[in-house]
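[Discussion] Sanity-checking designs against the backbone

I'm trying to build intuition for which residues belong where. Below is a structure token string of 472 positions. I'd appreciate it if someone posts a full sequence so I can compare it with mine line by line.
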């Protein structure tokens, strides 16, 4: 796959205006932020607690909320190579009878301008990782404490090493060490809102995987030019499950079990990260569930055991995202349920807007840094709040097994007019943040896109480059 990404910029000399950024966490948000910082010649280092970078399975989708930023960066064509467009989303009963179909017709595409791209999670991870120099990522760096003051920010790691910078970004997931360190500092000062002292809300437990490449003769659906996506809602069981075709003759699958209120906090913590777990009991419960290609067990058997992950689906919208020189992005400050497919999208939108705010920095002085990080939260919080609430509603529709949730699903999927469904969808997709320091991607689709905060610095730089005098 030939990359359109430019060569690395020259080393930036510290000038009192360009910050050195420490990114804790080599997830999607951290990697995209690194790529964006490269474009504005801002030096950074990434500190990752894992011993190796090994993305695991599971399906993902990206839509018009983030694809324009990928287009700006020259990554959209690369993404298309490892993904399939998704047009229809089928919701079925456990007996594979149709409940509802959300159709992505030509009118919808003409309005939005982008197809939803669907792929296995490791493909996107590998794509972003390939554009970050290996020497910028430091493994086995588990952060144990943080500090920040007028002179800079500091992290201390479990191996005894210490690192310094001007800005500390916590992109280290739902159980963020940076967030825990920041909140401890604020709580000691009596400055932490009470809501931020509470843990994440657990809702479901999910097992995910991606098969090895399969034989198209046995699975003819793999020859389809668009992804075939099925969400299946069981009857008389707390489970829902899904299967979705992706490139390379693979199928992504998952099984989601609605939880009761008796799950212990210790068990929740053990299952809080994407990673291999002891899944045999859950596999035994779900392997006979039907999918359009056979059974879920067929897909599980075709998936490497080490690539099957189990995780609690939890959510939480934290109030405190930044303080001083420290800022949180992605799951570290807003953990969304995956039902609406917006968790990764919002994490990467964070990276885009944070890079914009860093680009506008007047200096690395503490007040200027704090102001920029506050501006980041002000721009992002209202949009994240909307998506947080939408993900909770989607979870009720796609995973819910209570009597109320079943009634809600029947009403919404069968009686809500398509015009209202389309209006809700287009409202969400009107928000398309882009890097303010790069030429904007062409407007695609007829939908009126929400304007974003313009960059005075970029406008001035373009004026100077063109030799245009100041307007009178």
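Best answer:
Here's mine. Compare freely.
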């Amino acid at each position: 796959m030939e990359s359109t990404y430019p060569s690395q910029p020259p080393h930036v000399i510290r000038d009192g205006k360009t910050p050195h950024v420490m990114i804790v966490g080599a997830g999607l948000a951290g990697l995209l932020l690194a790529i964006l910082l490269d474009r504005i010649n801002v030096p950074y280092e990434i500190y990752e607690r894992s011993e190796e970078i090994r993305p695991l399975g599971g399906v993902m989708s990206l839509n018009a909320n983030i694809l324009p930023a990928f287009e700006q960066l020259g990554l959209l064509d690369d993404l298309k190579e490892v993904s399939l467009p998704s047009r229809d989303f089928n919701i079925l009963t456990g007996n594979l009878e149709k409940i509802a179909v959300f159709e992505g017709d030509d009118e919808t595409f003409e309005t939005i301008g982008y197809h939803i791209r669907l792929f296995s999670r490791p493909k996107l991870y590998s794509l972003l990782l390939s554009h970050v120099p290996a020497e910028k990522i430091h493994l086995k760096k588990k952060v144990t404490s943080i500090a920040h003051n007028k002179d800079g920010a500091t992290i201390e790691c479990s191996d005894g090493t210490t690192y310094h910078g001007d800005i500390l970004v916590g992109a280290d997931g739902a159980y963020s060490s940076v967030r825990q360190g920041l909140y401890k500092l604020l709580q000691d000062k009596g400055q932490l809102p009470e809501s931020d002292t509470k843990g994440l809300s657990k809702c479901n437990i999910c097992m995910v995987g991606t098969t090895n490449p399969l034989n198209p003769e046995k699975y003819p659906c793999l020859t389809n030019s668009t992804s075939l996506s099925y969400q299946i809602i069981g009857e008389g069981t707390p489970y829902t499950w899904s299967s979705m075709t992706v490139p390379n003759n693979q199928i992504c699958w998952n099984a989601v079990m609605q939880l009761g209120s008796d799950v212990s906090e210790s068990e929740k913590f053990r299952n809080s990260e994407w990673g291999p777990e002891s899944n045999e009991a859950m596999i035994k419960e779900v392997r006979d569930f039907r999918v359009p290609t056979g059974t879920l067990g067929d897909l599980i058997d075709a998936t490497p055991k080490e690539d099957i992950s189990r995780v609690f689906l939890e959510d939480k919208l934290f109030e405190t995202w930044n303080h001083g020189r420290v800022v949180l992005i992605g799951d570290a400050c807003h953990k969304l349920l995956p039902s609406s497919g917006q968790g990764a999208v919002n994490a990467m939108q964070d990276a885009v807007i944070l890079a914009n705010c860093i680009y506008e920095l007047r200096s690395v002085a503490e007040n200027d840094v704090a102001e920029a990080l506050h501006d980041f939260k002000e721009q992002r919080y209202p949009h994240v709040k909307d998506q947080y609430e939408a993900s909770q509603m989607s979870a009720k529709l796609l995973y819910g097994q209570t009597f109320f949730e079943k009634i809600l699903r029947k009403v919404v999927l069968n009686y809500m007019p398509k015009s209202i469904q389309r209006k809700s969808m287009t409202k969400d997709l009107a928000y398309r943040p882009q890097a303010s320091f790069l030429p904007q991607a062409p407007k695609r689709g007829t939908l009126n896109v929400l304007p974003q905060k313009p960059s005075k610095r970029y406008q001035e730089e373009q004026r100077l480059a063109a030799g245009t005098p100041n307007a009178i």
